[in-house]
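Title: Request for sanity check on Penicillin-binding protein prediction

Description:
We are preparing a figure and want to confirm that the structure record we downloaded matches what your pipeline produces today. Could someone re-run it with the sequence below and paste the raw structure tokens into this thread? We only need the token string, no images.
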Amino acid sequence: MRKPFLAALALTLTVAGAAPAWGERPAAVPTPAVIDAYLREALDSTGLPGLSAVVTHGDRIVHGTGLGRDASGRSVTADTPMRVASVSKSFTAAAIMTLVDEGRVALDQPVATYLPEFRMADPRAGRVTVRQLLNQTSGLSDRSVDIGATQRATSLAGYLAALRHGRLAGEPGARWEYCNVNYDVAARLVEVVDGRDFADAMRDRVFGRLGMDASAVGDRVVRPSDGFVSVFGAWLSRAELPGFRGGAGGIVTSASDMGRWLISQTGHGPQVVTPGSLAALHQPPPGGDYALGWGVETVAGRPLLVHSGNLFTYTAVQAVDPATGFGFAVMTNSASLHDDTYQILLGLVALADGRQPTTPGGGRQTTEWILAAIALVALALGLLGVRRSGHWARRRAGRAWWWTVLRMAGVLMPAAVLATYPQWVSLLMNGRAVTWAQLTYFPAPLTITLAVAAAAGLATATARLIRLFRPGHDRPTVP
């Protein structure tokens, strides 16, 4: 999910009330040919292996298409299965709202009312409401639960059991923090109240009502091919990283089916929920900018409802524009340090506004070439350091020990950073749990560069110490 989000107040003014007024602003509907031309240009400029996209307006799909190829060499089309990762959260929230419409769930009741198994080593968990789960203000955090244990779960019931020893990171409702656990707990709530497996409940409550026949939770029914990761500009096919994916990121769908979903989100066509519940799904809490599975971002001076998602070999983003009634989705069978899907989506928004879109691309290649250059420089410096270690040792002989330690610390710094790499990345991601296995996927260029720098530093330090302490050398003076 892209964050932080902007313009919550503007969105509030746009979607307030039981039934939002969609499409009041005049729209310049782009033709399929114009959309295709832009997407082909985007595919060429980004170098993505494959992408699919859909644009909707009001009650119709303007155009859905696919370009490029999958890992098996097949052409990507509008019907190609794609993992949509955290875009799944919007669907899970909609499933909850179907239970609200039936009077079986109330958003402001504690989760434990419907889900007695939701227990933690923190009495505050008993006060977490359903709305707080969906608004991501529950206090649940990657920093305070055992994410590793949840990812080893094989069912939503097992997932809930893995939370037993966890705690909340703050008071329920006090602050927003993005955490997948919220939506996997929500998925278990759907499962328990509905009385069926979450995948079956989603099929009947959401996918079936919209005619999304090519969509499913998990890989049992709809199986996408392997995706790609980018390593120094080259796309490598890899199987998706194993791990538990339920309501937070488990949906597989297609551009064609996403078109049906986006139409429903603008209040047109077959509906999953009542108009009042649809408005609630899009309404952030006061002072916030994340609604029930949708975020708010300002694009071209107005608020759009947006949610993005990335796994380790797939990336996706969706958006709906309350002012024009347009819907957009872009999905790729790849993942890298640089996300091109959002830029491509912005281009589609520009086309719908009658503006000339900016050609996306170049960010991934530039970033990874810079990292490759750094890795090569580090390697060269490491070789030079080993070769000149004798000279270094002769210059350091007889100096104070602390001077030698100080000079060695510099070459060992990359190794120290590598040793704590997951923790540094977690810190940069606001406490999100990160594993070594994850760092070998789309962060691979950064991981490799850091590993080369660490190896070069260790080789240099080892060679210097061997030369410094070998027989016949004066040693640093130790007080």
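Thanks, this matches our download. Residues 444-469 form the longest helix (26 residues).
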